Amino acid sequence: MSKHGRVLVAMSGGIDSTVTAMMLHEQGYEVVGITMKTWDYANSGSSKKETGCCSLDSINDARQAAVDMNFHHFIVDIREEFGDYVIDNFVDEYIAGRTPNPCVLCNTHIKWSALLKRADSLDCEFIATGHYAKIKEENGRKFISKGKDERKDQSYVLWGLSQDCLNRSRFPLGPYSKPEVRQMAKDFGYEELSKKGESYEICFVPDNNYRNFLKHRVEGLEERVAGGNFVGVDGKVLGTHAGYPFYTIGQRKGLGVAFGEPMYVTEIQPDTNTVVLGQVKDLLRNGMQVGKTNFMKYERIPDGMEAVTQIRYNSPGTLSNIFQNDNGNVNVEFLANVSGVAPGQSAVFYEGDDVLGGGIIFGSSLKR
Description:
Rossmann fold; five-stranded parallel β-sheet; 17 strands
């Protein structure tokens, strides 16, 4: 009988998940490893060699680590679950003129669901991942808090986890920095693993070119949306573009038209295939509206609560007042204007290092 119980560890074959399994094994947990096959690169339209968490090499690396530590390891095919939900949402959001964050959606609706389902079938009390974040508890509620390593902190992508998920989750790497984790890999005898690089790409867009992915995924898309207008914030036509799904809020490079001064995408209007351009000042907003919310630290926040609101991964966040409506949506009033608020992205609310909750941006207010 193990000292701490039986834990299912999500293993990608990378350094973080492997060290996670090693740490829990040493701490006295009965570890079971699982590697989830989420995507086939052949379906992405990319010519890049298959790498990352779904590659055969990574799966073999995860299995070898399990053999070395003498615990069971399973490979689970969740391509259908992943594709139907995450990929379809990714495409639908761009077609709707928004900018999705598939990693948040995958964590919330696919990976944790798949892990808990398999944990139950394998009699595992807990699940664990290599995320750089912490789980805290106050007043009977669990919530995410930032990891020690500010550069690696992944609390932003975990705002959607429910209380049930948090109660059964373990994040052993939260109290450590990346260099410390690399050193642990060396200490465990994995010299090569300690030098292994990291991927910051969306797993199903291996060349980081989402435009090519959309063209490959949606037959005839390029022809359907070509020839729309670039317009200024005053409505004046400035030129034509390749199609509204191929642009994102705040984009400056790759517009395909020279304007004599830096111009940025400030708004996308899918109904008319229009992309609005303006100067950097035209990107500023003093507020936004957030839906599909999930609150962790408190079941309901006090009206006008002061919080730091982060609108994209690795951004510093902005001090704001947040107001929760009866329908669960949140109105955010920034205390300083914020640039590049993009519908479809996640907004995450922090009290110090603690995640209050988060949601999906669906609208914004113009600057003062």
